[in-house]
């Protein structure tokens, strides 16, 4: 039995603060995306012997952080679904230009987008690419790609049990699947996995280096071990200390994310308790 990891790239860098419809528009990783890719490295790098990735920059950069010692084989058919006339536009512009279609997709996410590749077509393209990869490879491998093609592919495998939308996954997360000797794919749990590795000095250094932070930042964080990094994928980031350096770094790292300072007195609470509180 082999292991196959279907990995979604880290968060891309959008042109501004708006949310974008992104298919084959080629955005690079944001600062947050680079950090997410380093967390994937901590979780998967010692589990895989091969890496295949989409040619889009956000996937290539993620693969570079995730497995820097392995060659990355780019496969064009691992690209994200082409989203036609909407690809690369902000959802504000889309809502203005196509109000009826935008509303229809609110009720049915698979309602057609003008000029777009269909979910079935992109899922079949992706499925063929994965099959060729499995036939040409050995051992446990990672495929760094995109949420829409992943969800279409997995839905085709389990269409009788789950909707396609249930297989969508956030940036920097992955699915773990098992592959038998006939290259049949299965998994017991349809839930994606979001890396939350235990922090250590080496990981903190890699996180800092991934976003080119000044060398003085890590000692200033010191005792806190970059605890805030554990909250990378939450919609609200909590800073549980009063260290100005931590607060400044948190604001810069999570500029696209809602930032919330916890003001009550936590001095009588251990760091572990504070982290647990922030997750609730």
Characterization of this structure:
This protein is an alpha/beta fold and 280 residues long. 37% of the residues lie in helices and 12% in strands. The chain is built from 10 helices and 8 strands. The chain has helices at 31-44, 57-66, 91-97, 99-107, 119-136, 147-157, 201-210, 217-221, 244-253, 271-279; strands at residues 2-8, 50-53, 72-74, 141-145, 174-179, 185-186, 236-239, 258-261. The strands form 2 sheets. It has a 6-stranded mixed β-sheet with strand order 3-2-4-1-5-6. A two-stranded parallel ribbon has the order 7-8. Helix 2 links the parallel strand 2 and strand 3. Helix 1 (31-44) packs antiparallel against helix 7 (201-210), helix 3 packs across helix 4 and helix 5 crosses helix 6 (147-157). It is globular.
Please describe the structure with a list of short key phrases separated by commas or semicolons.
280 residues; alpha/beta; 6-stranded mixed sheet; two-stranded parallel sheet; 10 helices; disordered C terminus
How do the strands of the widest beta sheet line up side by side? Answer: 3-2-4-1-5-6
Shape: globular
The biggest beta sheet reads: 6 strands, mixed
Structural class estimated from helices and strands: alpha/beta
Helix content: 25-40%
The H-and-E topology, N to C, reads as EHEHEHHHEHEEHHEHEH
Question: Which spans have pLDDT < 50 for at least 5 consecutive residues?
Answer: 219-247, 254-280
Distance between the termini: 38 Å
What percent strand? 5-15%
**How many strands in all?**
8
Q: Residue-averaged pLDDT, rounded?
A: 80
Rg, alpha carbons: 20 Å
Number of helices: 10
């Amino acid at each position: 039995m082999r292991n196959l990891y279907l990995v979604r790239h880290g968060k891309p860098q959008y042109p501004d603060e708006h949310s974008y419809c992104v298919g084959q528009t080629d955005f690079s990783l944001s600062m947050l995306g680079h950090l997410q890719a380093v967390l994937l490295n901590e979780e998967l790098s010692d589990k895989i012997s091969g890496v295949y990735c989409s040619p889009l920059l956000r996937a290539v950069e993620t693969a570079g952080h995730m497995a820097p010692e392995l060659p990355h084989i780019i496969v064009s058919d691992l690209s994200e679904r082409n989203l036609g006339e909407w690809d690369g536009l902000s959802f504000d512009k889309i809502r203005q230009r196509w109000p009826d279609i935008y509303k229809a997709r609110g009720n049915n996410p698979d309602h057609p987008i003008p000029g777009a590749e269909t979910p079935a077509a992109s899922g079949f393209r992706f499925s063929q690419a994965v099959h060729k990869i499995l036939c040409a490879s050995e051992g446990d491998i990672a495929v760094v790609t995109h949420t829409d093609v992943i969800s279409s592919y997995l839905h085709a495998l389990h269409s009788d049990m789950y909707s396609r939308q249930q297989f969508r996954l956030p940036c920097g997360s992955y699915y773990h699947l098992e592959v038998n000797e006939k290259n049949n794919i299965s998994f017991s749990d349809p839930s994606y996995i979001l890396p939350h590795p235990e922090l250590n000095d080496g990981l903190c250094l890699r996180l800092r280096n991934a976003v080119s932070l000044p060398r003085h930042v890590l000692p200033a964080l010191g005792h806190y071990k970059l605890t805030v990094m554990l909250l990378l994928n939450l919609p609200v980031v909590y800073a549980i200390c009063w260290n100005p350096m931590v607060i400044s770094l948190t604001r810069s790292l999570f500029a696209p994310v809602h930032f919330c300072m916890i003001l009550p007195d936590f001095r009588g609470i251990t760091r572990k308790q504070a982290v647990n509180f922030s997750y609730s």
